[in-house]
Design goal:
Elements: H1 2-19, E1 26-27, E2 33-36, E3 43-46, E4 52-67, E5 90-93, E6 99-101, E7 107-109, E8 113-114, E9 126-130, E10 136-138, E11 143-148, H2 149-153, E12 161-172
Antiparallel strand pairs: 1-12, 2-12, 3-11, 4-9, 4-10, 4-12, 5-6, 5-11, 7-8
Length: 173
């Protein structure tokens, strides 16, 4: 029963986040954040505004490609452009590399791979993480890191290629 409620809240939260108007989202990155796929290539962002509860984060694609292998055929915006079951690999952490998004229960494969409904690793220009049931408390001067999951986990990262850049938006509650 608890699992059904959690799945329902995650679905409703994602639906609300994707259905929000542009004015509901606040851009919290001053410049694009860029993530490389290996060699501790995480991107960083410092939050310098009033402390608030965050129900969702949206990453909006700006430029670049990342891939899980040397071949350009695997290029994607958010993970790997092959036909794998769990194609997404962008991870959000705090400054100590504690995972904030996606929630750990959604990470399904070693290397920190996951799936999100309605998100395509090649074609989607936005990646939305939501947690309306347990919002993230983002304090003034908190730093966020954005990782390629294989780089963070140090599993399968040696053949990764590329860099992707995006703006970060928050939906506050």
């Amino acid at each position: 029963m608890i699992l059904q409620i959690t799945v329902f809240l995650a679905f409703v939260g994602t639906s609300l986040a994707q259905g929000s108007t542009t004015s509901d989202w606040k851009k919290i990155s001053k410049n694009p954040v860029c993530v490389r796929t290996r060699d501790d290539g995480y991107g960083t962002m410092l939050y310098n505004e009033e402390s608030k509860m965050v129900a969702a984060l949206k990453l909006k694609y700006v430029s670049g490609n990342v891939r899980c292998a040397a071949k350009k055929a695997y290029n994607s915006k958010w993970g790997c452009g092959d036909s794998r079951k769990y194609p997404l690999n962008i991870i959000v952490t705090d400054e100590n590399n504690n995972v904030a998004f996606p929630l750990p229960q959604y990470i399904k494969q070693s290397g920190m791979w996951y799936y999100m409904p309605l998100v395509h690793p090649v074609n989607s220009i936005e990646l939305v993480f939501s947690e309306f049931a347990h919002p993230l408390y983002l304090k003034q001067s908190d730093g966020l890191r954005f990782w390629y999951g294989e780089d963070l986990s140090k599993i399968g990262h040696t053949d990764n290629q590329g860099e992707v850049c995006f703006h970060v938006f928050a939906l506050f509650v």
